[in-house]
Amino acid sequence: MIINHPLLGPRDSEEFVYLGSTDLIDRPTNWEKSAAAEDFHQYQYIRENIAGDIQELWYHEQGDQSWLVVTRSTLTHEISNVELAQDFSRVKGRGK
Amino acid sequence: MSDYELIKESPLGGAEHEFDGVTVAEVIDQSLVMVALPRDRAVDIESAMGESCGLSIPAMGQSTKSSDASVTLWRLQKNQVLAYFSYDGDDAEVNLAERFDAPAYYTDQSDTWGMIRVSGERSRDVLERICPIDLDPSVFTLGSVSRTVMEHIGTIIFRDGDDSYVLLTMRSFSRSMLHAIEVSVKNVL
Questions:
Q1: Which of residues 81-120 of B touch A (CB under 8 A)?
Q2: How far apart are the first and last CA of chain A?
Q3: CB contact under 8 A, A14 and B149
Q4: pLDDT tens per residue across span B42-56
Q5: How sure is the predictor about B189, in pLDDT bands with cuts at 50, 70 and 90?
């Protein structure tokens, strides 16, 4: 499988480490509220099992050490989009 | 005064092997310093480097040379560059910081990497067996640099001549890397 890195071009997936869904970016911020236990349970364990495009986090460990958001179809493994997780998070108002 | 004296030794003890059309040799006269570029100061750093050494910050996967050609900057990551320069003293970090005179963060990496140069007219034939990067001369142009995996070893590859490539691996992997290259030479030649 080839991942088309936005800065470095096409790279073999052997260079990357897979983390999981981009849901992990949306860590709840209401840890002091009563709803926190349920929210963190959702954040940690509950995932949609989508047949189609999903967004997931990949880490370019054997490369430039960047985190990427890869849009991949679970039906065909076709990768339709790759972007830097840094940019993806900033759009969501996360990170610096 | 201690009873022991430490003797400086390069990772491969200066290994050099000649084959038909390929030379594999350790690089021992270069130092390596990481230069971190804080986002809000990258512009100041670049102009200071430009003034002191005639250097600019290269594009991703590319390199730039100082006006006296002694320092090469490699861009492997978004927010940092590696300086590869002629120096074999023990204080590479101080030496480079003085040469640059730029407000960046410097970290000496010289002794943590083993450097091996693969050169000669058949160097690409040898490397294409172990390197997943496209080394076609029109793609991996002179001065290109990349970090990848060769034989399961994280490796930086830099093209420093028409038929010359420098491979860097973490120091403890140097012998494994040298072995991988030698096996590839035997398979190809």
A1: none
A2: 31
A3: yes
A4: 889 999 999 999 999
A5: confident
Q: Which residues 54-83 of B have a C-beta within 8 angstroms of A?
A: 60-61, 76-78
* Core vs surface per residue B115-131: b (16+ CB within 10 A) or e: bbbbbbebbbbbbeebb
Angstrom distance (rounded) from CA A83 to CA A68: 6
Look up residue B18 and give its two tokens.
């000649």
Domains of chain A: 2-91 (3.30.2270.10)
Tokens found for residue B86: 């002629």
- The model's pLDDT over A2-37, given as tens digits with 9 standing for 90+, comes to 999 999 889 998 899 999 999 999 999 888 899 999
Domains of chain B: 16-28+111-188 (3.30.1360.120), 31-110 (3.30.70.1520)
Confidence band (pLDDT; 50, 70, 90) for B39? Answer: confident
ipTM summary value: 0.74
Cβ-based contacts of B132 with chain A (< 8 Å) = 11-12, 14-15
Three-state secondary-structure class, residue B80: strand
Categorize the per-residue pLDDT at A96 as very low, low, confident or very high, splitting at 50, 70 and 90.
low
Hey, are the CB atoms on A7 and B149 less than 8 Å from each other?
Answer: no
Task: Give exposure, B159-180, as e/b (b: 16+ Cβ within 10 Å).
Answer: bbeebebbbbbbbebbeebbeb
Quick check: B66 and B55 in contact, CB under 8 A?
Answer: yes
